[in-house]
UniProtKB/TrEMBL annotation:
Single GO BP term: lipopolysaccharide biosynthetic process
Organism: Oryzisolibacter propanilivorax
Molecular function as annotated in GO: acyltransferase activity, transferring groups other than amino-acyl groups; hydrolase activity
Keyword Transmembrane: yes
Entry GO CC: membrane
Pfam families: Acyl_transf_3
Acyltransferase domain: residues covered: 12-332
Record's protein name: Peptidoglycan/LPS O-acetylase OafA/YrhL, contains acyltransferase and SGNH-hydrolase domains
Cited InterPro entries: Acyl_transf_3_dom (IPR002656), Acyltransferase_3 (IPR050879)
Signal peptide coordinates: none
Amino acid sequence: MTTQRRHNYWAVRHFAALCVLFAHSFELSGKLPMGLLRAFPLLVGISGLGVTLFFIVSGYLVTQSWQRHRSATVFAWHRLLRILPGLWACIAFAVLLGWALGSLPTAAYWTHPQLREYVLGNVLLRNVLVLPGVFNGNPAGPGATGTLWTLPLEMTCYLWVLLLGVSGLLRRSSPATTVVLGALVAVTLWGGALNLFGAAIIANWLPRYYAAFLCGMLLALWRERVFTGWLLPGMLLLAASWLTWHWPAEQSLWRWLDLLRVAMLAWFVLNVVAAVSRIWPEPSGWPDLSYGIYLFGFPIQQALVSWRPEWNGWMVFGASTLLSLLAAVLSWYAIEARALRLKDALDRPGPRVAPMKA
């Protein structure tokens, strides 16, 4: 049984999606100061914790995906099938929601150039937020799909794995580790300028999430040795969080403390998952609704805030959780799961995942 099948990353992904949904409920409703959520002690905001967990797990599992198949075509095909169908469904959902709730007449909405910019821009992973005449009065602004900004980052990280895999570096742990550590230093110093798709994103967010993916990769490379129990990484995570919390963010050392904090979070999470999985292994055959919750939650929450501006964050969270789960179920069974069945179209038997050579 492989590490991926044994460990319950299903639970981590859904917890991460709910973190994002919870934080956005308060941010989008405008009923609590955003500084309250940003004061979360582990990372910048509860939403930031959720996104960081997504990137850690992605780096860990996607690296193993390459090692199983070792085919650039199969790897790219699998990644596109996981990302694009759900993205396209979310774009279509947001466009229809905007048509139903927006202030423009039907003809003006469907012929507006901003609508074409929205659809084409998001298909190209450029994170275009605004639909014409939609959510203009919302407290957090008119953005319709504010979570799509992570997808160009995710695709950039997939390209890293693909390049390392094609180069042969992922066959041996020592050279791969050297490259990944160098990449961690590079993204910590210059990651804010790395935006391959030209997406509309805030640069100071980027290094942390690139680093989270790279930390997941690093732990995948040494997965036979990193499962040491959660106590030591937990204590180191608390120490790194305390240092980061008390160190002035404007000083250059802070970014290295933040990198340490992300690395310790990754190590801690993998060990917690290993411990939990002894009691509750990865469910077999359960739908993975985390991606759908993450994508559809934002437009649903914006719609709720527009419809019921008097609602507080807790009300928005309760209603949006139910509606996002429903949207995610429909997306999974109607689109995502069907698309993932096409994986076998290019699959060929690959080598078993074995301990890497040093």
